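ok here's Type IX secretion system protein PorV domain-containing protein:
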Amino acid sequence: MKKLILFIFLITCSFTKAQTIRKYSNEFMNIGVDARAFGMANTMVAHSGDVNSGYWNPTGLLKIEDSEASLMHANYFANIAQYDYAAYAKKIDDRSAWGASIIRFGVDDILNTTQLIDASGNVNYNRISLFSTADYGFTFSYARKLPVQGFQYGANAKIIRRIIGDFASSWGFGFDLGLQFEKNDWQLGLMVRDITTTYNIWNINEKEFQKIKDAQTLNPLQNQDLPESSEITLPKVQFGVAKKYEFHNETSLLASANLNMQFQQTNDLISTSFASIDPAIGAEFGYNNLAFLRAGFGNFQKILQIDGSKKIGFQPNLGVGFQYKGIAIDYALTDLGNQSAALYSNVFSVKVDLSIFR
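and the structure:
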């Protein structure tokens, strides 16, 4: 019975009657990609300059010399959820580049206990089945240099596919716009996600939905209302700044910072009815462009306590990386010491400069 109640709670959360605009719509697209970025608390908007720029700021694709590919894997919620990412990018000419990527965030083999109780009111475990829920994000990127010295821009076209077993599925479409500017070793970046808003249209399997409705007569906990069929993801703005310091002993230090803004009131460190802002800082210490040690602090949130008070939580991340002859292998441990409300995760990624195979 506990499993039944847990399942109904999860389905209710997914099928809760939606407002036209949801505060946390398509949040899987905001987690981030690349272990290097996670190690630096995702402060990549200003200095991103590889195949992963298609996610962080498509403008950075212009820094690719030829073509690159990237893969990433991470586990969330004690290995319950799997988060995977793959990307490819190629330079078109001296002034333009393109890229494509796919993100999958999914939970597999979930127990479907909606039919656990038969028509006679008996618990029948043979009626339990399995299903999966998965979110997919397909991104197509293009970047080009502007005639103005130091300025360049990039844009993303996104297709969102979300599937909840046989119960429901949706398609969504949206666009991102990015800018980067460099001068005197300083790098500035601006990324506007879902600049036109991202619009999702849901298709509810009414046959499966009716099975849940019919079960209400046997279990009043299964109180389901048909949800609305559309949702809109509001724009988010990220501003970044970075600077790299080179030292004489073959070492370097890359310092970066982000201000992440969304136009709604949340538990972010700075929160108003108009917008909320979450700052993040990161650093990467490198030796001979071969080995790297990274650290970052982000996800500053006001966390509500049991006594009604609030404390400031933050997410400290740590990462390491190795790069040799066009192959980079990176690892990050997020939420070191469990300082924030988020759960820690181990993130692994690999990036390859495909020109080494020619």
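+1. The helical segments are 2-15, 35-39, 53-56, 206-214.
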